[in-house]
Amino acid sequence: MCTAATYKTKDFYFGRNLDYEFSYGDEIVIACRNYPFTFSNGETIQSHHALIGMAYVCDGYPLYYDAINEKGLAIAGLNFVGNAHYNEYKPDKENIAQYELIPWILSTCENVNQAKCKLENLNILNKPFNENLPLAQLHWILADKSECITVESMSDGLHIYPNPAGVLTNNPPFPYQMFNLNNYRNLSPKSPVNTFSKELNLDLYSRGMGALGLPGDLSSQSRFVKVAFTKLNSISGDSEYESVSQFFHILHSVEQQKGCCELENQQYEITLYSSCCNCTKGIYYYTTYNNHQISAVNMHNENLDQNKIIRYPQIQKEQIHYQN
Ligand SMILES: C[C@H](CCC(=O)NCCS(=O)(=O)O)[C@H]1CC[C@H]2[C@@H]3[C@H](O)C[C@@H]4C[C@H](O)CC[C@]4(C)[C@H]3C[C@H](O)[C@]12C
Fold first, then answer.
1. Is the shortest distance between the CB of 15 and ligand 1 below 6 Å?
2. pTM, whole model, 2 decimals?
3. Between 20 and 30 A from 322 (CA), which of 109, 142, 204, 313?
């Protein structure tokens, strides 16, 4: 399971929880402006916007999971197993492999509006990166400071939905996730009044009763509701510390603890990392399952006018600040 969200204070923030049972060896990777990207449609982009994101670098190529570019556009891919459908080559379309989608959009688009134009003619190919890697079945959330969309390639075609909640998890398809929010329209951060019956003097015996009924389990539909409620009611000051801190609180409200989501062979899905990108400033903040201290890579602290990728291994060990 995975969860992604957008957030706005003075700057625009975007990030995700990556929930899975193992890591491919995820690293924070900057693709500098002159790192050449070649695509399945035959295009090579020699010079482009710089990118920063989490990726598995395979044969020197950054396979991005989520990333932002220097213009403030952000994308994350989340599992969409059983619903994602990719296609054979279509001569009248822009044929792009699933693993190329993030660089294909971020290298040239400045905002969601430009991305939507580019997506109009897209055909996502059912082409794996190599024979050792599975074809990831994903859907995507794309966002800038003023707009957010969800992209789902299914057997009935490519869908591009406005995403007014600014969140995404996994199955079911996005329209069902949004419809399901109707069932929770009575939830509130405020204390509820007694509308049950005038004849009973029901007590407000606890704080937080306005959100009674908010799901707390780890299923993707429940996480969608929980993270949407948390994000949309979150309050934060404008400073960088307050914004980043609040953003991680939002994501950590739906994190997965080892032992609570059992898979086969005694494996457990956990939140391998949580990310928070300041899309305005090009900074990638993250925490990992075993390291709660926030680490950060600022793309603008590098010379971006190079033709290479720059890699930062995740800092995985818990950093404890002993006070005595
Ligand atoms: C597993 C990740 C998604 C996490 C997620 O949504 N979990 C939910 C599980 S479930 O629905 O609830 O079962 C996805 C997100 C991005 C994916 C990676 C990226 O797409 C890049 C390449 C793509 C290759 O096809 C496969 C390896 C890979 C390196 C992918 C491995 C894996 O599928 C990743 C890491």
1. no
2. 0.97
3. 313
CA 65 – CA 138 distance, rounded (Å): 10
Does residue 189 form part of some domain?
no
Residue 60 in any domain: the answer is yes
Summary mean pLDDT of the chain? 97
**CB-ligand 1 contact for 80 (6 Å cutoff):** no
- Measured by CA distance, the residue closest to atom 27 of ligand 1 is 133
Helices (H), the chain: 101-106, 112-119, 174-180, 220-233, 240-252
Question: pLDDT by residue (tens digit) across 261-305?
Answer: 999 999 999 999 999 999 999 999 999 999 999 999 999 999 999
Q: Where are the alpha helices (DSSP H) in 15-133?
A: 101-106, 112-119
On whether residue 85 sits in a domain, the answer given is yes
**Complex confidence, ipTM:** 0.96
What letter represents residue 170's amino acid?
N
Q: What is the CATH number of the domain that holds 26?
A: 3.60.60.10
Total structural domains in the chain? 1
Residue 226 lies in a domain: no
